[in-house]
Structures are given as C-alpha cells and as structure tokens.
Amino acid sequence: MPRHPLYLAIAASLTSLPTLADHMEELVVTATHSTRTIDVTNALVISPDVAELLKEAPGANVNSNGPLTGIPQYRGMYGSRIATAIDGNQLAPSGPNWMDPPISYVVGSQLESLEVYRGIVPVSVAQESIGGAIDARIDKGAFSDSSDFGATGRAMSSAQSVNGGYSVNSNLYASNDQHRLKLAALTESGNNADFPDGKILPTKYERDRYDVGYGFRSGSHTFQLDYGYNDTGDTGTPALPMDIRYIHGDLYNFGYQVEAGPDTTIELALYGSELRHSMDNYKLRQPPASAADWRRNTAKSDNLGFRLEGTLRDDGGMWTLGTDGFDSTHDSDIDNPNNAMFFVRNFNSAEREVLGAFVERQQSLGANWTAEFGARYNRVDMDAGKVDGTPAMMMPPAQMLRDEFNNAQRSQTDNNVDLVAKAWFAASDSSSWYLGVARKNRSPSYQERYLWLPLEATAGLADGNTYTGTIALDPETSNQVEFGLDFSGERLTLSPRIFYNKVDDYIQGTPSESAAAVMFVNMMSGGKAPPPLQFNNVDAKLYGFDMDWSLQLDDHWALSGLLNYVRGERDDINDNLYRIAPPNASFRLGYAEATWSASVEGVVYDQQNNVSATNSEQKTSGYGLVNLKATWQATQGLQLAAGVDNLFDREYRDHLNGYNRAANPDIALRERLPGYGINAFARVMYTF
Ligand SMILES: [Cu+2]
User: Fold this and answer.
1) Which of 185, 231, 359, 546 has the most CB atoms lying inside 10 A of its own CB?
2) What is the distance between the alpha carbons of residues 37 and 56, in angstroms, rounded to a whole number?
3) What total of structural domains would you count in the chain?
4) What is the whole-number distance in angstroms between the Cα of residue 296 and the centre of ligand 1?
C-alpha cells in the first residue's frame, strides 16, 4: 500500500501483520487491514487474463466473456462499479461491451503487485468506487545505490495444454542511483479451449505488448515516463455477439514525486491512452446465414487524466489532500462488409468527464484505536453528439428513436459527495475489530445514458438482451456498512467481514416503456427476440460475508482458504440482481521445503438459484474442482513450476460465464458456457 506508508505503520504496530511465509504456498496474499495484495511474482496462475488472479482475494470474482475479457466482480458489483487503476491511473475501455476491461491492459508478468481493496475504499484511492477498487502496480525497476549502471532482468515462459497456449515475456532493467530504464515485451497466444465434451468456440486469443519506461531521481525529486503499446489480435468472446479483431492501445504516463519535507510528499500524475478496437460476427465464428446480418463494429476511446495529491504526516496520523480529473470520449460505428450503404452511428463522441477533490484523515486515537475519515466531491459532466443509421432512414420506430435522441438535452451534470468513516480497535496483540460506514456514488456510464438504438452494447452484461439508455438517469447512491475481525495468531490467521450495501437508484435494465424500441426489436427479429430493456433507476441491496484464513500446521504443512457469500436483491420489486457469484469456498493444503513446494487445492461452488427474472437469467448447478501445483527453485535464478487445473476433467458451468452466442456442434446457442477442461501447464522463470 505505497500510498499510505504511515497508515501501514500504524496498522503494523497495532496487530502483527498476518504475512504468510513465502514458502507456504505459491500464491502469497499478504494482508493489511484494508487491502489484499496478491503477490504476483509467486502467483502461478497460467491464464493470460490477469483478472483470474482476483479469485485469490476474498469477495472477488470474475465475469468472463472470453479469454482476455474478464470483468472484475467484488461483493456482487462489477463493471464500472469497480474502480480499476494501473499505477493509480484510470482507463476507459474502447469496447462498448468491455471486450477490453481496464484490467485487461495489465500484463501479469510485469506486475509488481495487484491490490484488491477490502470493502469500503478510501476516497483518496479512486474517483468512483461504489463497489470496490483494484490497484495494479507495474514493476518499473529500482534505482540502485551506486552511480555505476547495472542490468537486471527476468524472462518468463509458459505453456498450457487446454488450448495449446503459450506466453513469452522478458523484462530488462538498467539502473544506477539516478536513472532507471525498463524495456519489456510480451507475446502470447492460444487456440480454442477444450472442455470435456468438445471445444469452446471461439476462445482463441493472440496478444503482443511492449513497454518502455524511464525514471530519473535527483535529491528528493523523482520523475517517471512510461509508454505501453497493446496489440491484441483475433480473440474470441463467445458470450458476446461479436469477437475481437483487434485492440490497439497506446498508454502514456508521466509521474512526478517530491519529498517536500520530512513529513510531506507531493505526487503529480498526467496520463492518457488512445484505444482503437474492431470486432465482428463473421470471422472467428460461423457467420450469419444471411449476408444482410453480417456486422462489424469499429470503436475507440480517448482517455486523459491527472492526479495531484499531497500527504502530510504528523504525530497523530496523516492528511491526504488531492484533486483529480478523468475524461474519456467514445465513438462506435457499425457497418456491414456486404452492404456499403449500411451504417449505424452507435455512439458519437460520447464523453464522460469526472473532476474531483478529496480530503482524508488517518488518525491514531490512543493506544488501541485508529480511524480513517474521508470526504470527496465529484462533478461528472457527460454529453454525446447526434446519431444516425440506415435503420432510422428505413424504419419509422428507429427514426423516432433517433429523432428523440437528437432532440433531447443530452448534456448532463451530476454533483456527487462521497463520505467514508472507518475505525479499528486492537483488542489484543493478535486481534483487531473493524467497523466501516460509507456513502458512495456512481454516475451512469455512457452506455447507460446514450445507447439510442436497442443493441447489446452494455459494457459486457452478456445477458442476451437488447437495451436502450436513459439520458436523465440519476447517479447510484450506496449506503454501506461493514464489520469484521482481523485475527493473527501464531498459527492461525483469519479475517471475516460481513457487509450490507443499500443502493438507491441502482441502474438496472427494466422492461422498455418505449413503444418505438419495442416495435423496432420486434421488427428486426421477426418477433423472436425478447422485448428490449431500458436502463432505469431502481433500488437494490447487496449483503453477505467473506473471509480468508490460513493455518500453519508445522514447519512444512499449511492449510489456507477463502469463503465467499453474497446476495443481491432488488428492493423495489421481488427479484434478484443479475450475474451474482454463487456461494463458494476454496481450501488449499500445501507442503514446502526450502527449494520446492507443492499444493493441492479444492474449489467448491454452490448452485445459483437466486437469478434475475428481469434479465431472464438461467440458474446454474454447483460443482467442485481439484487443482495441483508445484514449484522448484532449481538455482538462485531459475524457477520451474508446473500444475494441473481441473484434475478430474470435471464438466462444469461457472455462473459468471455468459451464454454461448457462437454456433458450436458441442454447445447449444444461449446455453451457459462451460468451464475449461483439464489443463496441464508449466512455467520457466529466469531472473538475472
Ligand atoms: Cu468489442
């Protein structure tokens, strides 16, 4: 938690931090009161999708629409309700269906750490964090103590059997006490994945990524410049109506930090990204029978942001003050390669700008109490340009939707105030009680406000429904309370939390009241498609329980695990929220010697019967999986690792996978997509 050094120090003095010994398991989750840092250097998760790592943190899960398209879920909230930052910087996906969620721009093999904030997020951490926050820290190399340049590096290569996937990554660093330079490159690809009854089509993927970084340090000043280029090629998303043809992203970062005094740090960041994307429904999957139904969607987002933050430490704690801004602009155009006349201007310069300011105080209150108080104000400005499309020239209902949209007052402003209060009470050397309350807001996404023609462009909901937006939507307001314990004994650590989250004006698709939208969907589908939904403000509540725990049995053997339970319900009608993770638990038994370790893991998911009738959501059965892992530190620099996921080749349906949308002899259309079959994998890592 580099943003709050003093806070960490306070926490450490109150309870001995439950830091799990390095050798205990491959994936070390170090815990503080309020974050779970997933130690990715030792993480042995072979998926190309970094989001999969989140399953190692209590309360977290992944909505998966494809091999590179995992959308983080935390305590039943997902998508733009979870703030994801890369080195503190935000990014808005180019895909109107979030084929490139922010976390997809994080390269696992270049991570320094992946932090999942536990429960209520401090106001200093993210602008909009109604449902949680994830902070990925990228390894930039380290300044050395000497003026002589030294070079270090890490090469990593892995392969897996379920899809013939492989990845090769190398990071090179050169540094002295003033300069640090980083060069990194990644290439990875895989074929369509197996499941016990056949193949999941299309789940092939290919991605290259290049990064350069330069840092300069002089006295108390540190400058940092970073550039990254993401090049994703043909990649399947079987839960969505189209597949990725490309995602080209340029990512820029400038950072400056100064130790302005012994107790004062000031940080400035300026950053941006230009993301270009294309997808279609005819190249990677079986194309539609009628040439008139072929579709291609070209989309982009341009992102620009800044952060200015100061921390002032004093005897009683720490002040954090700051201001930040983030602006994203989205365009999305649909055409048909078989018909030069056809076009839909799906989103035209749909813009969302958030300007915020915050103040946060971490305060030590006597010997046993610590507290955190925060307040943030965000002003959210949104707007979108006029739209058009061939359907609006030929079909009266589409014409009505277009004209209504173009004549509407599309510019919208929200003023949101977030408040956070948390307290910890150290009852003993080994246990600390925690209570947190917060009021958090989220303004609507551009899809929720500006989707004018009924389409499935819903930031990856993948429920198979068409939606239209509602320009006049109100922001969501959540009132949250959570309570828990952090226990850290000699052998046993555990940290249970219960939480309750009441969300007023929760944004949810409800049956459309637009006669034009209903008629349009009816005409387009010949009466076969379900009637469209429309984003509206409803009321909802989410509540549950989660914990992680570990038990050191002796010098070599250890047990650890997670327990997660969440319910999401509508509060205005009798229905459940859509795509909520079923109750689940994991147990791991590990054995470790100085140079090698091995573990067996059981993962159990309950059935999910609490499904959303509004979203026509299908129920899912429960299942259990067994995974094996082993690592061997062959020499100082060389580590070999291998494992088998889904050892018994169990056929199962992950409730958070979507429904199959691509023709497949082995999986019916609109059937829940299966999880991957047995997967043997190996990894070689060489550090020098
Ligand atoms: Cu897309």
Assistant:
1) 546
2) 10
3) 1
4) 9
pLDDT digits (tens, 9 = 90+) for 603-630: 999 999 999 999 999 999 999 999 999 9
| Residue 411 token pair | 């510019």
Cα of 246 from ligand 1 centre, angstroms: 9
Q: How many residues does this entry show for the chain?
A: 688
Buried b (16+ CB within 10 A) or exposed e, 600-626: ebebebbebebbbebbebeebeebebe
Q: How far is the CA of 96 from the centre of ligand 1 (A)?
A: 6
Confidence of residue 45 (pLDDT cuts 50, 70, 90): confident
Scan for tokens 């902070």, then name that residue: 135
Between CA 249 and CA 233 the distance in angstroms is 12
Mean pLDDT of all residues in 643-672? 97
Average pLDDT of the residues in 387-412 = 97
How far is ligand 1, taken at its centre, from the CA of residue 25, in Å?
A: 37
Q: What's the confidence (pLDDT) of residue 33?
A: 53
pTM: 0.93
Domain with 449, as residue range(s), is 5-142+150-687
Tell me, in angstroms, the distance from the centre of ligand 1 to residue 146's CA.
48
For residue 418, the CA-to-ligand 1 centroid distance in Å is 32
* CATH code of the domain containing 340: 2.40.170.20
Distance 237 CA to ligand 1 centre (A): 9
- Give 44 Cα–ligand 1 centroid separation in angstroms: 29
The alpha carbon of 373 and the centre of ligand 1 are apart by a number of angstroms equal to 40
What's the pLDDT band for 307 if we cut at 50, 70, 90?
A: very high
For residues 445 and 330, give the distance between their C-alpha atoms in angstroms, rounded to a whole number: 11
For 495-556, where are the E strands, in sequence order?
Answer: 497-511, 533-552
How do strand 533-552 and strand 467-468 relate by DSSP bridges? parallel
Q: Is it the case that residue 39 has pLDDT exceeding 90?
A: no
Distance 99 CA to ligand 1 centre (A): 5
